[in-house]
């Protein structure tokens, strides 16, 4: 059977199905943003890992190695934050082909170092080896949460409000911009990519920031989300994860989806439906979470967080409410293993 | 600068040099078999990661995917054991090209599952994505030890005895055998590789077992090594790590190096110096450790553990004592990033 017949999530389900957990320190295994481990009664350890492969997750034609290092850490830190956890350590493995000089790998680690500073995490280990082709980066992040306080995908309740940090679709449109300029590149020394006025979406694609600021703001406001996930595969896909794990449905409103001006302008220029980009684009690394209805006033005061919808009964399904009032079913799209690229 | 000018260890030193640790839960960062993290006063968390790349660490011409899955877990578990820790969880990331069917990846996970059963660890997370070329496997293992009881590389003392589990050089000779048969393969359906009587070295290469049994035997006997490391890059390289980290020298005896009959026979057949294979071959995943002189009687009773030498003053250097009494300096050879393949 070809992997493309199953897709990313189908393959993961199939592969992990025979595995049961039995180690006493395993609190939660496969299926959320991170695993939860416990050594004592006060703190829990969170673990998450991501693999970044050249040609799949990044293109060194337009992705500077320093930014890539920063991004690789952000992607993992984002998963720890999505459990309402505190990121603490990372381990980094890289596979490097002969085409890279020591200076290239130093640039990558400069970005990793910057991210460690920004997120306050320690690099505590890793593995470095040669590869036959291209660059491979594998990072595992470790964090912690108070025992029982990690926020899972499974806690959303009917009538909860759906909240989203920042804006979405920007990273995807940044990627489209990079791809356009890559095609336009004519090999000449004086080629100047048309990036003016598009700095924000470029930064969102090349050097995303995991929303440590939002987690800190929620903590200060005393808000503990009922469920949370980070937006790596697109809002639609993540909402379906929360709904499935929580046994609920959801409605989000077209006109409430936060979209930056640059994202809209780029989408228009490239003739891409901006709502599709915003809901299915991926790599936003924003936080999507639910809070009880009674927290509406409190959560509305959090900077850079918007209410985009609410949780319904499971039988109501998961829908986008279009501007004309029509209900459009939300569809999943695994970003890292799309059926057409598997 | 080309990476080959630095070698694996030189590159790691250079890349990790700018990183300091400051997170309170970080007890030990880069530089040992695992990192040590602490959330409370009773237990410490151990973390280690390894990256396995097709064409570098394995060749699917002769490495069955099921065995590869088992090996990938063993390699990581071995690092946890080398800290005298208890392996508890793993996270597994894979990158898979179109050439692989679902059944191939299931075979890989069958081996991972078997290893989880053998070592008593839980699979708790991971990442699955497509790759452009070949198979990439990244595993991070998590374990635990009593607070302050993890055995580091740095604790060897002058006059300590140097102990080695099992035998060495077998995995390397198994690899040479596989490579010979790969060259001999003529593409015909009735090709039969000449593996008879070489099952042991084949197994050591293709499906290594991390020495959980030795750690359990040491625990039962009440022996806590003063220093320990697992043999992944060869006994010589690992002894140099222990010596450097502990600020000591060492002497090991040519005639005491445990070598299996199949290893010797294969080395003779292929005209390879068996002591070189035993000391620099790599991938043995045996445990190399030191104990105080006073534990000689106790450690000699542990099954499948041999005394191969002793720790000296740092100024005495690190030497192999040849059968004729000559002292031969031990040389490091990074197995995964040899200068000629970097």
Automatic annotation (TrEMBL), chains A, B:
Residues engaged in binding Mg(2+) 3: 33, 79, 230
Q: InterPro entries attached here?
A: PurM-like_C_sf, PurM-like_N, PurM-like_N_sf, ThiL-like
Q: Which GO terms describe its biological process?
A: thiamine biosynthetic process; thiamine diphosphate biosynthetic process
- As given in the record, the signal peptide range reads none
The EC number(s) given in the record are 2.7.4.16
Pfam families referenced in this protein's UniProt entry, alphabetically = AIRS
Q: What class of enzyme is it?
A: transferase
Domain PurM-like N-terminal residue range list: 31-144
One of the entry's Gene Ontology molecular-function terms is: ATP binding
- Where, by residue number, does Mg(2+) 5 bind? 233
Q: Which reaction does it catalyse?
A: thiamine phosphate + ATP = thiamine diphosphate + ADP
**Binding of substrate: at which residues?**
57, 283
Binding-site residues, Mg(2+) 1: 49-50, 127
The UniProt keywords, alphabetically, are: ATP-binding, Kinase, Magnesium, Metal-binding, Nucleotide-binding, Thiamine biosynthesis, Transferase
What are the binding positions for Mg(2+) 4 in this chain?
33, 48, 79
Q: Which residues bind Mg(2+) 2?
A: 50, 79
Which positions bind ATP? 109, 126-127, 153, 232
Q: In which pathway does it act?
A: Cofactor biosynthesis; thiamine diphosphate biosynthesis; thiamine diphosphate from thiamine phosphate: step 1/1
What SUPFAM superfamilies does the database record attribute to this sequence? PurM C-terminal domain-like, PurM N-terminal domain-like
Role: Catalyzes the ATP-dependent phosphorylation of thiamine-monophosphate (TMP) to form thiamine-pyrophosphate (TPP), the active form of vitamin B1.
Extra facts: Reaction mechanism of ThiL seems to utilize a direct, inline transfer of the gamma-phosphate of ATP to TMP rather than a phosphorylated enzyme intermediate.
Entry's family note: Belongs to the thiamine-monophosphate kinase family.
Q: What is this protein called?
A: Thiamine-monophosphate kinase
Specify the species: Porphyromonas cangingivalis
Gene symbol here is thiL
């Amino acid at each position: 059977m070809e992997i493309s017949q199953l897709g990313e999530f189908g393959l993961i389900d199939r592969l992990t199905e025979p595995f049961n957990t039995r180690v006493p320190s395993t609190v939660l295994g496969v299926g959320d943003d991170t695993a939860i481990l416990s050594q004592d009664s006060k703190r829990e350890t969170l673990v998450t890992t991501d693999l970044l492969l050249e040609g799949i997750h990044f293109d060194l034609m337009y992705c500077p190695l320093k930014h890539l290092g920063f991004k690789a850490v952000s992607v993992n830190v984002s998963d720890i934050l999505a459990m309402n956890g505190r990121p603490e350590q990372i381990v980094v493995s890289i596979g490097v082909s002969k085409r890279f000089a020591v200076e290239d790998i130093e640039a990558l680690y400069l970005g990793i170092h910057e991210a460690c500073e920004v997120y306050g995490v320690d690099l505590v280990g890793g593995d470095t080896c040669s590869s036959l082709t291209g660059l491979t980066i594998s990072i595992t992040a470790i964090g912690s949460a108070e025992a029982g306080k990690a926020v899972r995908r499974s806690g959303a309740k009917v009538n909860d409000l759906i909240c989203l940090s920042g804006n979405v679709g920007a990273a995807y449109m940044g990627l489209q911009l990079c791809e356009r300029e890559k095609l336009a590149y004519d090999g000449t020394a004086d080629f100047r990519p048309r990036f003016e006025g598009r700095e924000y979406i470029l930064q969102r694609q090349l050097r995303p920031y995991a929303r440590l600021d939002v987690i800190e703001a929620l903590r200060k406001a005393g808000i503990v989300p009922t469920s949370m996930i980070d937006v790596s595969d697109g809002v639609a896909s993540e909402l379906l994860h929360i709904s499935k794990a929580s046994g609920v449905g959801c409605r989000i409103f077209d006109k409430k989806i936060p979209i930056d001006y640059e994202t809209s302008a780029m989408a228009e220029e490239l003739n891409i439906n901006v709502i599709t980009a915003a809901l299915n684009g991926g790599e936003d690394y924003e936080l999507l979470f639910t809070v009880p209805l009674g927290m509406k006033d409190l959560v509305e005061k959090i900077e850079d967080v918007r209410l985009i919808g609410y949780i319904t009964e499971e039988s109501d399904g998961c829908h986008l409410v279009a501007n004309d009032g029509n209900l459009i079913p939300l569809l999943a799209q695994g970003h890292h293993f799309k059926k057409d690229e598997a």
